[in-house]
Amino acid sequence: MSDLFPPFAPDPDEPRRRLFKPVPVRVIIPNIITLIALCLGLTAIRLAYEGRYEPAVIAIVVAALLDGVDGRIARLLKGTSRFGAELDSLADFVNFGVTPALILYSFVLHDLKALGWIVVLVFAIAMALRLARFNAMLDDPHRPEWKKNFFTGMPAPAGAVTSMLPLYLSFLGVPVEAAAAPVVLVYLLGLAFLMVSTIPVYAGKNIGRVPRHWVLPIFVLSVAVFGLLVSFPFEMLTLITVLFLGTIPLGVMRYRKLERMHALQPVPVATEASAPGAEPPPAA
User: Fold this and answer.
1) Sign of CA pseudo-dihedral 161, 164, 169, 170
2) How far apart are CA 210 and CA 185, in angstroms?
3) Residue 16 domain flag
4) Which H helix or E strand runs over 151?
5) How many CB atoms lie within 10 A of CB 79?
6) Where residue 47 sits, what CATH number does that domain have?
7) pTM to 2 decimals?
8) PROSITE patterns recorded for this chain (predicted)?
9) pLDDT at 272
10) Maximum distance among all alpha carbons in the chain?
11) Contacts of 178 (CB under 8 A, 6+ apart)
């Protein structure tokens, strides 16, 4: 019977099998940035309910900046992944849908009782729908190349930054109290509509080269804007919000113009020889 079950001695030189495959660092770095942004968004909720609205707003703005960085870093490092894309969408929903709405509810919308809470739900759900549509459109192979330079509806970070305009004005001395709650309610509903609408918003993703004589002025302007944003953060955020909302009609006009231009372009007609299933012409 001992021959039927011979003793098994493992080969000491045989390499051990790894339970998990190693993950490149270039894939981890963008996800770490996304998680830091998510921590900022969650911390902003705590700061708001402690009455510390200024650092809460700054946390959301920094989270929006990190959101614009993580995807670019992932593409630069060639570290894009399906996991990272899903994590980014979940973080965007919390940072730009849930957090700003809860901050505004704690700040002024709570004076409207149940109506204020309903608006909070509408804004958060609108953000979720906007992100779901964005993810679905990424897989559309028939989307024209020129349309990729436009967002469909207001993008998530812009929706969060613009939604906190009442807070910016309050920090600048404008009275935003219980009497202003209905105005904030209408404003937040308008932003929710912009996010779920099909209104094209210019994205600026396909900006290529700039003329050489514009390089130095762009450097100087960038430094000036950064300095103003650090020195006068809420004045600049108010200005940026107003300018962004004002550029939406310009983006729509540009989109309609490009749409008409591409609609007038002739569509190649398949000839009899090039039609599917047609026999090739005889060789000379």
Assistant:
1) negative
2) 41
3) no
4) strand 150-152
5) 19
6) 1.20.120.1760
7) 0.80
8) CDP_ALCOHOL_P_TRANSF
9) 46
10) 93
11) 108, 111
Q: How many beta carbons lie within 10 A of that of residue 52, not counting itself?
A: 13
The count of domains in the chain is: 1
CA distance 60 to 69: 14
For residues 113 and 87, the answer to whether their CB atoms sit within 8 Å is no
Structural domain that includes position 103:
25-205+214-263
**Residue 67 belongs to a domain:** yes
Task: Tell me the chain's radius of gyration from C-alpha atoms.
Answer: 26
What pairs with residue 168 in β-bridges? none
Q: Can you tell me whether residue 201 is helix, strand or coil?
A: strand
Averaged pLDDT, 257-272: 65
Give me 267's structure tokens: 């569509």
Contacts of 221 (CB under 8 A, 6+ apart): none
10 lies in a domain?
no
For 169-180, write each residue's pLDDT tens digit: 999 988 888 788
pLDDT digit string, tens, across residues 76-91: 888 788 888 888 889 9
